[in-house]
Amino acid sequence: MFKILKKQELSPGIFHYDIEAPRVAKKAQAGQFIVLRVDEDGERIPLTIADFDREAGTITLIFQVVGASTKMLAAKNEGDSIVDFAGPLGQPSEIHENMGTIVCIGGGIGVAPVYPIARAMHEAGNKVISIMGAKTKDILIFEDKMRAISDEVLIATDDGSYGVKGFVTTALQQLVDRGEKIDQVTAIGPGVMMRSVVEATRPLGIKTIVSLNPVMVDGTGMCGGCRVQVGDEMKFACVDGPEFDGHLVDFDSLMSRSRMFRPQEAQAKDHVCNIGLGR
Amino acid sequence: MALVMEKHKMPEQDPKVRARNFQEVALGYDEDTAVAEAERCLNCKVPKCRQGCPVQVNIPAFIGKIKERDFDAAIDIIKESNSLPAVCGRVCPQENQCEKHCIMGIKGEPVGIGRLERFVADYQLAKNEEIKPIQFAEDAQKVAVIGAGPSGLSCAGDLAKMGYKVTIFEALHVAGGVLSYGIPEFRLPKDKIVRREVENLQKLGVTIEVNAIAGRLFTVDELMGEMGFDAVYVGTGAGLPHFMHIPGENLNGVYSSNEFLTRCNLMKAYDFPNHLTPIAIGKNVAVVGGGNVAMDAARTSLRLGAENVYIVYRRSEAELPARAEEVHHAKEEGIQFKLLNNPVEILGDENGWVKGLKCIKMELGEPDASGRRRPVAIEGSEFELDVDTVIMAIGNGPNPIVASTTPGMETNKRGNIIADEETCATTKEGVFAGGDIVTGAATVILAMGAGKKAAAAIDAYLKSKK
């Protein structure tokens, strides 16, 4: 069992959990993910690591309630436990000194997984410019944390309630327009967002890394459900990724595959448990 | 007494009924049938059956005890060499092993060794006897086993009985490996058999840690270093599914057999939404491949409610790698065999879902390196199969996570760990490996055999180090 040491609702439906998992925290690196199960009937849910504290022995997860499983996770309280927690999984982000100027883009709750990457980039002495995107000011998360490890932070909201009005690509364009020399972009967020970033950087020839979170079961390479077309190769996001060269990723297929279980997901969300498990 | 030339029939669920439920197909012998079947054994002076068994179970001896109705003694004899008899009695390909060599098989049918093994194993499980934990010496040496599949479980069981303190590290949240995620409930019940066999091992004194991903949570070097293990056995299996690399494999409605079976067996998607892992099954399903896994996926599809289920296989019936019994069961249940057909493309609709499988007809040419006649495409014979779900059951490659994080442990070109056939020793001192991660995808019993050999070799290695 793995204990929830901290629970905080960052904005409606978006939660911050610190989970006690000392061995995972000891090994976790920026860019990796974990798989958890809430209870014995639960799904295996992959979540990218939003932070880790090796001394406290905790892993931070940020998640949004989208379906039955995240609803069950959100129903847990501080001090409760979840049954399974496995990781760290996937390849860590490639981070080293002298990478130059890195633009770290996070859209929605994608800001959370981009945070440890931006921090590691910063700690390695690179210049980090962060772009945070959200629909509206109230649901922007991790702003203080991002400011603390970024040389500069740009914010974009769809409704213009904070920062520039528009998308993360609007803010990215501002950087390009002012002549900022960008060596790499790392973008994490919804598929549509990552695809727009990739299309914006492609003509400029800027290396762009995206972190994918496709449907998967085990997370260790066994099921192949997370396969994604990268250039002319079929890759498994769980063992080959989750990060890939964004210019090579087939986003159409990726986004289509993420809809494979939509009807069942809707059914599960509406399902009222007959034996009172509270879902 | 006249010889009974045929095996006593295995009682089974009616095909029409069982094709729509997940309960076990074969119901098992009762005591009288088991004794009568045991009476067919000639108790040969040179028991050839034993040579056919990868773990050399003393077959005539245990069958002799069944004749005497001493079922406890019978199971004890099996357990001297086989730690998972209830599993092996169900899923071993006996027709290619012990029963293949049975003298009774020359003129009639061989003795139903597998059925008898299952009978005494189930007899003992039903008695729910207390298992005495092993008393380990305080200074007992420690062995780490990576992977709680058949190979790891068998290695761990043997080592524990020799007095070693064993910890099995399992990546998934449940032990059993392919016994839990791969082989369906209707062939190998999970709670009744697999979980009980695993628990019995734990009661014996073997520690099992789930959610422990070797190569990520810790490396083999860390196991042998700060974690204090004296030897390591790697039995991680063949866990990386192959695809055909034909157009359309990323469409919705396409699964690897691993994903399909894992959703259903391990995650119990057949009981969705009481269990929250979903599975999407169409009306018409094509399963590509001809092995046991393909049969399992096809029969599972039927049980999930598919109307038409096809096995699409590029060779002919004679070359089907699946056990004859599995093919027979599949046919009885209504699985349709599309033999000498090879998929060339999966066709999709405008929403990215499978709407058909384009195949080409094949004929058999000259024998290839495997000795089987090579299938050759018949030009211009393409046709479309009307399906909305495609399951690729064409085999698995080795999972790279452990090998890639273990310097000094060499792999071959295919990524399989190189290990000595007799001792399972790898190129790294103190590290042994066996089962599918070494041989490529094979059978439960061969993996168990390797685990057993490795246990003996680890014992010899650790004694030499003391």
Topology readout:
The complex is a heterodimer of chains A (about 280) and B (about 475).
Chain A: E1 2-11, E2 14-20, H1 22-27, E3 33-37, E4 45-48, E5 51-53, E6 58-64, H2 68-74, E7 81-82, E8 84-89, E9 101-107, H3 111-123, E10 127-134, H4 143-149, E11 152-157, E12 164-165, H5 168-177, E13 184-188, H6 191-201, E14 207-211, E15 227-230, E16 233-236, E17 243-245, H7 251-257, H8 262-270
Parallel strand pairs in A: 9-10, 9-13, 10-11, 11-12, 13-14
Antiparallel strand pairs in A: 1-2, 1-7, 2-6, 3-4, 3-8, 5-6, 14-17, 15-16
Chain B: H1 15-18, H2 31-38, H3 48-51, H4 59-67, H5 71-81, H6 85-91, H7 104-107, H8 113-127, E1 142-146, H9 150-161, E2 165-169, H10 178-181, H11 190-204, E3 207-209, H12 220-224, E4 231-234, E5 240-241, E6 254-256, H13 257-266, E7 284-288, H14 292-303, E8 308-313, H15 324-333, E9 336-339, E10 341-348, E11 354-367, E12 373-377, E13 383-385, E14 389-392, E15 396-397, H16 401-404, E16 431-433, H17 436-439, H18 444-465
Helix pairs in contact in B: 2-4, 2-8, 4-5, 4-8, 5-8, 6-8, 9-18, 13-14, 14-15
Number of helices of chain A: 8
Report how far apart the termini of chain A are.
21 Å
Strand content of chain A: 25-35%
Mean pLDDT of chain A: 93
Shape of chain B: globular
Q: Report low-confidence residues of chain B grouped into runs of 5 or more.
A: none
Radius of gyration of chain A: 18 Å
Low-confidence stretches of chain A: 273-279
Which oligomeric state applies?
Answer: heterodimer
In what order do the strands lie side by side in the largest sheet of chain B?
A: 3-2-1-4-16
Main sheet overview of chain B: 5 strands, parallel
Which structural class fits the helix and strand makeup of chain B? alpha/beta
Number of strands of chain B: 16
The biggest sheet of chain A, with number of strands, parallel, antiparallel or mixed sense and barrel status, is:
7 strands, mixed
* Total DSSP helices of chain B: 18
How many E-type strands of chain A?
17
N- and C-termini, Cα separation of chain B:
57 Å
